[in-house]
Amino acid sequence: MTAKPRGRPSVNLRILPSSMSVLAICAGLTSIRFALQGQPHAAMALIVAAAILDGLDGRVARFFDAESRMGEEIDSLADAVNFGVAPAMVVYASLLSASPAGWVVVLLYAVSIVLRLARFNALLDDATLPAYTREFFVGMPAPAGAIAVLGPLAAKLQFGGGWWSSPWFVCAWVAACSLLVVSRLPMKKMHAVAVPPNLAALLLAVLAIVAAAAFLFPYVLVMVAIAAYLCHIPFSVRSHRWLAEHPEVWGERPKQRRAVRRAIRRAQPNRRSMARLGLRKPAGRT
Q1: CB under 8 Å to 115, separation ≥6 — which residues?
Q2: pLDDT, tens digit, for every residue of 99-135?
Q3: Dihedral pair phi/psi, residue 98, rounded to 5°
Q4: How far is CA 80 from the centre of its chain?
Q5: pTM surpassing 0.70?
């Protein structure tokens, strides 16, 4: 009987997504340590790193066909730590430790993230929802909420102290982020956004600029990203409402949907006329 040649031990890549989630938890908890030691730069960098890992672990799981119930639970718990507890503690230790109301608003934010994640998990099992709703988050997603709540800290690290770092403004900002997190506002998922082929080169140029800004002006980039995300919300709500009113395009690709919208606009050129706005011409004029 001949012995089989001993090869290199195989690596089970199915644990890679869960490993990334655990690394994200470590990054989130370590950010609290740096914040308590008065190092907000490192604390913010670790939360951003946790957000990047969170965005990658699901895609890695699908790529290696390694999706599992345990992995989903680990990812959900990681989100609660990284985007609920960690940002709340970083903001409190860096900006609100001297404010009596500071602890209340960071508790509100952390609880809002947990409630938002619970609702997200519940909606995953709801088979009664229309197909187009899968293209939208309900409320601000947890990673976006974590980056948004760090906005005043990013402004302080970039520009120094000012009204943006005062306790009253930070408390109001954190409370507003908490409301967006638990709101019912539809927010477009990034992977559901389709870029027309003629804009692909422009998108690559923008990504190159963003990569350079991440090294040269990281806090300005964080503030610009927050502003851009907040500005996209009205457009996302409008898109959600339009899809709800046009079930015939739910199964169409983005290119076909854009064609339908253009056709509807051409068929209704006066949709924003004075009559639609409820205005009337002055008396005596024709």
Answers
A1: 181, 182
A2: 889 999 999 999 999 999 999 888 877 778 888 888 8
A3: -95, 0
A4: 14
A5: yes
* Pair of tokens at residue 110: 């952390």
Q: Strand, coil or helix: what is 137? A: strand
For the cut 90, the answer to whether the pLDDT of residue 158 exceeds it is yes
- DSSP lists the bridge partners of residue 186 as 138
- Output the pLDDT for position 201: 78
Closest CA to 80 of 50, 58, 105, 57: 50
Task: In whole angstroms, give the CA distance from residue 140 to residue 113.
Answer: 9
Query: Would you say 119 and 138 are in contact if contact means Cβ atoms under 8 Å apart?
Result: yes
The string of DSSP codes covering 206-241 is HHHHHHHHHHH-HHHHHHHHHHHHHHHHHHHHHHHH
**Rounded Cα gap, residues 239 and 82, in angstroms:** 30
Nearest to 51 by CA among 144, 172, 188: 144
